[in-house]
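Example for tutorial group B:
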């Protein structure tokens, strides 16, 4: 700016110029202040906007979750989380979605949410439910404890149900029973909650040896019978329980698997004199008729009704097969998939292919996979390979590679099979769901390395996923390497430190690895004390007694080792090779050599580890 000569200005002109300069300076200062303030305020403003947007997406996710619109719920929850990873409502949306879809990753998000906000009652219930699903008992018990200790509002059937599930999961029938009784006696309990309580009651009935066990079993079955007499989805599930009971009275080969809409297991064990005290059950034909006419029954339910009729009269097989085909051959893709699954389950593979030709099988993924399964059962591997190579139906690359790998193996194309297994593993990537589809399939088809890699990758992404950890354990057991087995169990114990089964197995394999004559007394004492505690908690458990017997044998207390088995009755199908070997060793250590040799002769030696075989080596011929 050109400097003005002020010497020629009048006093008034000089005053006005000074005022103008001051005004310009003030404007410049204000602009600088606003610029600096805007710079520092922009980020909080952006964060506030993102927080508001994240909460809006989270609310949409909650609504979709309640409507069980899982794809939309997932999209909204992810959108909320991506906008602001620290927003409590975004964390809650992701955690709730993962919990309701029974994914173990939910626990990590609940943990993050707890660090930023208090969990409400719904949060605690979801956290407890998913923790029970993945056997994270400590997390479940902590959440359940908060629910039960609440006074405003007071605990209700939903909370008692979780408490009963937790008690049943750790094998405490005595602890579970009062909660179940509360649910069944509470008029506010929903039909669904009553059915879930009844199923838990059936599950613990076999464990409960008290004098009240029979009366509880009668009350439980009576309630299930009552719940089955309706038109709701719960009544349909109750009918499925009765159907499974009828089919289990004498196994029905090929019966379709009974799955409740709630995903609950259906234990139906009855024992001893209890059968004489149970209520009058409807016949298989009566259950079939009720199931067939239920207003919510779909194809799979009506086909189960056919299973019941076949169970009642096996001479009707051809009639029932023909009727099922006539009823469902022109249905939609879901009905056809149910029919295809049913026919394959009956071993009617050729009939399935004739009923649902390829032109119709390509209508859906499930139908196409059933078509491939039927071809595989008929050893038509060339045909399967041609279908997969032609991409007649576009399968997920992982699924396609899995099937091709199996085809290659069946056709003797070893290199191609290995390559396709590797492609399937690569296609699964870090997707836990895909890995848990690939791993069991590879395991079943002899691709042990691929199965182990898939299980290991799944546990890397979801450490608390119990089926994946169990898969790793099976693969280690198949290797017959005691140290490898113990390594997997040690990792599982770090995840589930209060799980009695994992505690027992880790201690057993650790004990096998201890040098017989150079043992660490403190470690041996620790294992023995653990075994004694486990036996006290679950006296009927043969694995716990086997661990205690081995610990006492290593501690040079043979009489105590044999005494461990006194007063216990074990079903023949519960006798493992390990249990037989330890008992035979205990007999021999107490001078009962002939009895020990007789028992050792019954042990399937190929099922023993090297460390177990040493224990009975001298007893073998």
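The residue assignment follows.
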């Amino acid at each position: 700016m050109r400097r003005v000569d002020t010497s020629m200005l009048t006093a008034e002109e000089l005053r006005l110029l000074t005022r103008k300069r001051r005004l310009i300076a003030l404007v410049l200062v204000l602009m600088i202040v606003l610029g600096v303030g805007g710079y520092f305020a922009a980020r909080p403003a952006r964060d506030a906007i993102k927080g508001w947007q994240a909460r809006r997406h989270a609310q949409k996710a909650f609504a979709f979750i309640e409507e069980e619109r899982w794809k939309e719920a997932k999209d909204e929850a992810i959108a909320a989380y991506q906008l602001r990873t620290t927003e409590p409502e975004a964390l809650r949306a992701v955690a709730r979605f993962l919990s309701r879809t029974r994914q173990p990753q939910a626990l990590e998000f609940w943990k993050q949410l707890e660090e930023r906000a208090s969990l409400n009652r719904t949060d605690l219930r979801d956290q407890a439910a998913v923790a029970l699903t993945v056997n994270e008992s400590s997390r479940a018990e902590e959440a359940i404890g908060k629910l039960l200790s609440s006074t405003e509002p007071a605990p209700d059937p939903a909370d008692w149900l979780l408490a009963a599930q937790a008690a049943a999961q750790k094998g405490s029938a005595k602890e579970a029973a009062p909660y179940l009784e509360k649910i069944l006696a509470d008029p506010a309990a929903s039909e669904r909650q009553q059915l879930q309580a009844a199923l838990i009651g059936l599950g613990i009935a076999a464990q409960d040896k008290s004098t009240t066990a029979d009366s509880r079993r009668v009350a439980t079955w009576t309630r299930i019978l009552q719940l089955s007499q309706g038109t709701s989805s719960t009544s349909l599930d109750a009918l499925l329980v009765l159907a499974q009971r009828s089919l289990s009275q004498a196994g029905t080969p090929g019966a379709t698997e009974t799955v409740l809409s709630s995903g609950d297991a259906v234990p139906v064990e009855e024992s001893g004199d209890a059968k004489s005290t149970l209520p009058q059950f409807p016949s298989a034909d009566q259950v079939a008729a009720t199931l067939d006419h239920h207003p919510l029954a779909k194809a799979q339910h009506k086909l189960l009704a056919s299973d019941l009729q076949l169970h009642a009269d096996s001479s009707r097989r051809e009639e029932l097969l023909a009727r099922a085909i006539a009823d469902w051959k022109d249905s939609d893709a879901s009905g056809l998939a149910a029919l295809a699954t049913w026919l394959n389950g009956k071993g009617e593979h050729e009939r399935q292919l004739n009923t649902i030709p390829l032109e119709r099988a390509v209508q859906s993924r499930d139908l196409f996979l059933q078509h491939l399964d039927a071809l595989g059962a008929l050893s038509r591997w060339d045909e399967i390979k041609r279908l997969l190579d032609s991409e007649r139906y576009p399968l997920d690359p992982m699924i396609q590679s899995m099937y091709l790998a199996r085809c290659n193996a069946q056709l003797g194309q070893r290199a191609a099979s290995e390559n396709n297994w590797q492609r399937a593993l690569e296609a699964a990537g870090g997707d836990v769901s895909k890995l848990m589809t690939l791993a069991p399939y590879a395991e079943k088809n002899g691709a042990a390395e691929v199965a182990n890699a898939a299980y290991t990758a799944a546990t890397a992404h979801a450490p608390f996923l119990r089926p994946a950890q169990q898969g790793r354990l099976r693969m280690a057991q198949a290797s017959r390497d005691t140290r490898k087995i113990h390594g997997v169990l040690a990792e599982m114990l770090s995840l589930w430190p209060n799980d009695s089964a994992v505690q027992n197995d880790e201690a057993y394999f650790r004990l096998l690895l201890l040098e017989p004559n150079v043992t660490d007394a403190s470690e041996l004492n620790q294992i023995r004390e653990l075994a004694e505690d486990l036996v006290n908690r679950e006296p009927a458990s043969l694995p716990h007694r086997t661990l205690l017997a081995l610990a006492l044998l290593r501690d040079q207390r043979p009489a105590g080792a044999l005494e461990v088995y006194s007063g216990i009755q074990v079903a023949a199908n519960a006798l493992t090779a390990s249990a037989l070997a330890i008992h035979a060793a205990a007999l021999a250590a107490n001078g009962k050599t002939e009895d020990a040799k007789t028992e050792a002769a019954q042990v399937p030696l190929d099922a023993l580890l090297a460390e177990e075989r040493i224990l009975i080596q001298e007893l073998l011929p």
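DSSP finds 33 helices and no strands in the chain. Compare this with the pattern of hydrophobic and polar residues in the output above.
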